[in-house]
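Note to self: keep these together.
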Amino acid sequence: MEPCVIIPTFWTRRRARMSENPLTVYDHPTPIDSDGTLPDCLRSLEGVEGLGRVVLIVAATDPGIEHAAEDKVRQILEDFPSIDALVFGPAELGSLHRRLEQIEFADMIDGVSLMGYGAVRNVGLMAAAVLGCESVVFLDDDQIITDSSFLKIAMEGLGDRMPDGKPVLAKSGYYTDAEGRYQRHTPPHWSDIFWRQEDAVNQALAKVDAPPRIQPSSMAFGGCLALHKDMFCNVSFDPWVMRGEDIDYVINARMHGGDVFLDGEWHVIHQPPQPANPAVHFRQDVYRFIYEHRKLEFAKSQVDLRQVTPESMMPYPGPFLDSFVPLRAMATAVLRGLSQRGGGQYLKVARVALKDAERYSLEHCQHYFDFQRRWPMLMDRIWDDIALRPLFTGERQIDRTAITGRFPIIRSD
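Structure:
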C-alpha cells in the first residue's frame, strides 16, 4: 500500500494573544512572518522511499490570517518540486463543505473544519477518502525523518492480524529527540504531587523495547500515526477534544471494537520550535481530561459501544480519566500558582478554566457520538467522489483572486 501522507500545519499572528476559543489554542503554531519547521520536515521527506501524495492542511489561530498562512505554505512548497503535494486551505474547505451540503451531510460540517486538532485531522481523512487511498500516515510539521524506509516500516503489519486474531488497522510509532531518547526524565516539582503526567507517559513508553514489536497501546503519537482505510473510514477523530486528539483516537477505536498498536521499530525525530508555555499546556490538559472523563461516562449509556474504563487505559492516560481529575487539577493549579513562575496563569485555571471545562464537557460530549454515527456513511459516500476528486488531484483549480483579501491591485495608467 502506498499511503497518503497528511501533514497538518498550524499558524498564528506574529504577536498573538491566546485565542479566546480553546479549540484553536495550539501547542506551538508558527508565526506567519517565519517559515518555522515545515521546510525541514519537507526536506526530510524528499529522501523517503515510496513517497506518493502529500496533503498539507493549513490551519490558523485567527481567521484573519488563514489566507496568508495558505500563501506561506504554498511559497514554502515551491522549494520542493519533487514532492507531489496538495495544499488544503480555506478555499478547498469551502468546496468540501458545499459538497457536503449537496449530498445531505451538512450536519457534519462543524466536525470537518480548519479549527481544532480533531477537525483538522478529519479533513485529512476525507481528503484520503476522496483520493481513494488505502492507508494514511500522519506527520506533524515539526517532525524530521532520518530513515529512507520510514513509509515502508509504517506499512509493515498494517492490515494484518496478530496471533490472537486482532486486526492491525491503526498503529503508532513514537517520538525521539535528536539523540534518540524517547523518554523524558525531568525532576518532578513538589507542586506536581497530584499530576505526575510525565511519569505516566514514561511508563507507557517502556513497552517500546519490550517484545513483541507490534502490540496494543493505550497511547498514540499523531505525528507518527498510520491508519488503514478500514479504520479511518469507520472511526473519526473527535472534533471537540482540546488537545491529545491522537490519544483520544485510541479511546474512539476501542469504543468501536478496535485497537491502536505501538510499533517499537517505527519512530520519528520530534523537534518542536520552542518551549511551549507550560501553563497553557496545563490549561488545555484540564479541558482535555475533564472532557475525556465525561465522554467515557456518557459512552456507558450507549449500548452499541464497547466500554472503555480508566483502568483499561493504564498506565497513560488512565490516571487522568477518572472522576477525581477535577480535584487533582484544582490542587495542582493552586500549588503551581503559589510556587512556580507565571503563577497567575495557573491560579486563573483554578478560578476560571476548571468551571468552564466542566461546562464545556457537559455541552459537547454528546456531539462526538452524533458525529461519529454518521461518519462511516459520509466516508462511503465521498470515497473517490467524482465531484471532489478533480479538486484534490489538481485537475480543477480554484480562482483565488475571487477570495476576499486576494483581489489583484488595479493600477490606472
